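Here is one chain, start to finish.
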Amino acid sequence: MPTLIAKGATPLQREHLQWRTAVPGGRRLHCIVLDGSASMRRAGGLARAKGLADRLIADAAQAGDAVAVLGLNGQGVQWLLQARRARGADTAGLQRFGTGGGTPLRLALAQAQAWLQQASQRRAGTERWLWLLTDGRTLDTPARPTAAEHIVIVDFDDPRHPLGRAAAWAVPWGATHCAAAELDLQRR
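Its structure:
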């Protein structure tokens, strides 16, 4: 996935290749935060975000990593996939999750932070990843979740009328930012 993010919509070049040392035995924790606010209905944003979450879960399963999915919408924040090894993960909660209402992003990131801290204490030496799948359409200016060593913000902002909030968060967070449209192009 890092190579695809670095590549963007351009043809693959040597400098896009992202190498990382494989960590044996599933030594990564992935927390996927899925924005299901009403604005994510636009242009099929939530459906595309769910598809990406499925792909991230499958990648984690292949690596034997632990994964959790946290959904947020006007109903609040809920665990869609409880923290566990991704292999054989039940994604029914993810598929049933719908859009509506506001964006309790601060609350969701606080829960993700707590999970990453607790899980890393139980699994010493693990890499902690946070994946934020959002359009950034909130008035909150969330603080960086410090328990995450690696943060990837996948931005579902409307390219015709972009607000640029998710991109703005990425800078002080030291996060990787990519537009969802770039990932959609790479899947074709």
